């Protein structure tokens, strides 16, 4: 990053149409990590894995927390996919989270130079938090409110979340980019991570067919090493193991050229999630802070 905050966002970001392959990590923030921890782990994310972005997951409602995210990201030359977290209990806390985030985006001078996109999520359609009409309205309003800081708006969602709402084309039309949940382990046709490409391709093709050429990111994207109360397979054939988790990411690497053929320069993907301390089974690190397997994904092809 420059020593001084630039005066303009013109030519600040690399064009999205040159972004593909590995983007970075989903990073769960319910623990309300300290600024020191954020700086340490963001440095690891950037320097040891060549990440470009951190995609936030969950919510921390501590005042000033997103300012800490901005500072840690700025210090480590990372962009952020920010998140308005709805949660799972049908409450309206997301409104205050939205308002707080938007205030920070307008008052922290570094915020527009770190925040690549704002997501509504996670899986608001699948969880029936809002109707697709109301969600589309929220997206369009957010785009207006963030236009002066040039921050795009999206929804973090499964293909099935759209499909069970009749396609929710109004939401797809409203968002600037498409942030896809790619979690093939939950498919009734799942077997192993290495064999997941047909499942990935099916959902990807659905978004290509309905997304009208918009950029796609797989943001909540991975395969679990273990099951848990919240991670259960929908077929006994689906194997949760470290080998299968590793094989899933190796499969994505091997399909880099195929993913690059998608609209607007191809698909960029995140690994969900940084650590098993954040979500058991999906982490690249285990609960003891040890890498579960070698992880050196391609950042281009």
Biggest sheet, open or closed, and with what strands and sense? 8 strands, parallel, barrel
Poorly predicted runs = none
Structural class: alpha/beta
Helical percent range? 25-40%
The total of beta strands comes to: 8
> End-to-end distance, in Å?
25 Å
Rg value: 18 Å
State the shape: globular
The helix/strand order is EHEHEHEHEHHEHEHHE
Q: Kindly report the spatial arrangement of strands forming the biggest sheet.
A: 1-2-3-4-5-6-7-8
Strand content: 15-25%
- Helical stretch count? 9
The average pLDDT score comes to: 96
Any descriptors?
alpha/beta; 301 residues; 8-stranded parallel beta barrel; 32% helix; single chain; 16% strand
Question: What would you note in describing this structure?
Answer:
- With 301 residues, the chain is of the alpha/beta class.
- It is 32% helix and 16% strand.
- The protein is built from 9 helices and 8 strands.
- The chain has helices at 35-47, 65-75, 93-107, 132-145, 159-163, 169-174, 197-210, 242-254, 256-260, and strands at 21-28, 53-57, 79-85, 115-121, 153-158, 178-182, 216-221, 268-271.
- The protein has an 8-stranded parallel barrel with strand order 1-2-3-4-5-6-7-8, surrounded by 6 helices.
- The longest helix has 15 residues, at 93-107.
- The protein is globular.
